[in-house]
Structure formats: C-alpha cells, structure tokens
Amino acid sequence: MTTITLDAVGKSFGDSRALTDISLQFPAGSFTALLGPSGCGKTTLLRLIAGFEQPTMGVVRFEGDVMADGTRMVPPEERNLGIVFQSYALWPHMDVAANVAYPLKGRGFGRAEIERRTAEALAMVSLTGYERRSVDALSGGQRQRVALARCLVTGTMIILLDEPLANLDVHLRAAMLDVFADTHKRTGATIVFVTHDQSEALALADTIVVLDGGRVQQIGTPEKIYGEPANAMVAGFVGRGSLVAASHGFAARGSASSRGKVLVRPHAVRLTETGLPASVLRLRYTGASYETTLVLANGDTLVADLPTRRGIGEEVRVTVDDAWSVPA
Length: 328
Ligand SMILES: Nc1ncnc2c1ncn2[C@@H]1O[C@H](COP(=O)(O)OP(=O)(O)OP(=O)(O)O)[C@@H](O)[C@H]1O
Known about the structure:
alpha+beta, Rossmann fold, six-stranded mixed sheet, four-stranded antiparallel sheet, 8 helices, binds adenosine-5'-triphosphate, ATP binding
C-alpha cells in the first residue's frame, strides 16, 4: 500500500498555468476521483503522479520518498505503478496473454511464474480463456479489461485510471464500474481515477477532488460533495439541482445568508397546496419521473422530479424539503 502526497504542486506550460498550489494526500488503499470540466487540469495532475510531467513547483512523494520536485524526477518505469488509459494502449500484434505479461519482461521471472501471474491477472478481470485471442478481436470493454490486467500483473500498489470508461457504451460502463470496484477491493491498491463524469465519480470513489481552473475546489466523500458543495462551481458541476435565491426562504442546511444562493436537488421539491407559487416552464419524461422545470415569482428556475405530468404554463405551488446554503 502506498500513500501519494502532493505538496504545493504547480505546473505551467510556458506562460500558461495548468495547476496552482495543489496540496493533496491520497492515503494508501484509497480510491480517489479527480473530477472537473475539460481543461481543469485533471489529466495533468495524473501525469504528474505518473511521472510523465515534472512539477514546476512543489513536491510529489510516494510513501515519503520524493518522486519529483523542481530539480529531480523519478521516471515512470521506476515508480512501480500501473496506468489504464482511455485509449487502452495495447499492442495490436500481440495476443491477450502477451499484452498482459508485457510488464513482466526483463524482470527476471521464470516462464512458469509469468504464466501464473498472467492467469491470475486475467482471472481478476474475468478474462480467463482469452489468453490466445488477438486484442483486435476484442470488444472495447474486453480491451479495457486486458489493459487493467496488464496493470495488475506486477502487483503494483498504485493504479492510475485516465478516463477509462470514456470509450465504452452505457451498459459496458456499468459493468466496468463493478470491475474497478472489485479490483480495488481485492488488491487494496491506491487508485486515482480521472473523469469528467460526475456519476462515475460518485459511484466509485471514496474521495472526490473537484478541480476547476487548475485549482482544487473541494475534497470530500461523494456524499459531502453532493450534499454540501463548497461553492457554486461544485454545486453546478456535481449532480442535478437548481441554485436559487436564499430570499425565497426555503429551510436550508449550512450557514444561511439571506443574500446568498441555496442549492435545491430535484428530489427535494414537492407540489403542495400551501407552497410558493410557480409555473411550469418545461418537462421531460425520464421513465422514473417527470423532470419538471418550474419558474418562481422572481424568475428563478427550480427543477423538480415529479411523479405526474403537469401542463406547460400550469400554475402550481412548491415546497422544498431540503436545501443547502452554498458558501459564497
Ligand atoms: N503539453 C501541454 N502543453 C501545453 N499546455 C498543456 C499541455 N498539457 C495540458 N496543457 C494545458 O493545461 C490545461 C489543463 O489540461 P488537462 O489536459 O490537464 O485538462 P483536463 O482537465 O484533463 O481536460 P480534458 O478533460 O479535456 O482532458 C489546459 O489548459 C491545457 O491546454
């Protein structure tokens, strides 16, 4: 198990700053998602941990050992970590077993040991029996599992996942979420996972780091990030919800300020006889409910998951059961 520590890390490319003052600890055995919009710096952060980039400022440590600072840098192949890329990065001319065994080459393992480890890694990703298949003949999800097996084969205790589900269809994504969760449970490795998809981060990670503009916006459990976002950026990026004026008087958790905004999740909105007046602006049927956008008297919009279809323009009254006072 390996703890990864970043201490006041910054990264610039020429004049442009990709990351500013990042201090983070990824405890041994943790599963952390780096989440944020395109260009926020999440891939750069992962590449700094991997050793593909050198920090312009600050220090990267594994278990207290300096991996990189402004002057020194341990190369990726000496960091004992495994990486799974969105693009799989498999060798097309090799079969599945040869791809998985590749990192064991030149490490002094005997043939039987290589076969044993390869079989074990393939079993972990449910690909036993696929040893002699060409990787060209595999589906996207199977290729991703080969890539994961290749990173497990050395027994590495750090696994870095760079948008690993981005190329997969929605059903395969769900299956791969389970594969990653199982892998984490079985290996106890420290996993860092880059994604721009908040539902993946909420589903998989024990800790989420939200980045924007190269800075950390919030670090917390999925429940904390969803339930108590630290600012308007996190509130707007993670989960569905509406930011409305605190002056509506909805009872809100957090430090209330009558001038600020409160976040209301769609499940917390009900239509009642006595609530605030609103009118129906639009709706979308989602199967489980009707995602209905309501307009309040001051023009704020409120999204609600309602059990029944309402008419566009219909006048209703709304009650909010839960809201979060978003810090300014
Ligand atoms: N090699 C590079 N040279 C110059 N600028 C770079 C380089 N790599 C990244 N950047 C810049 O650093 C910033 C952060 O990029 P990064 O790829 O880390 O973002 P990201 O959050 O992973 O985005 P995406 O989700 O689109 O991949 C961007 O402004 C990007 O243009």
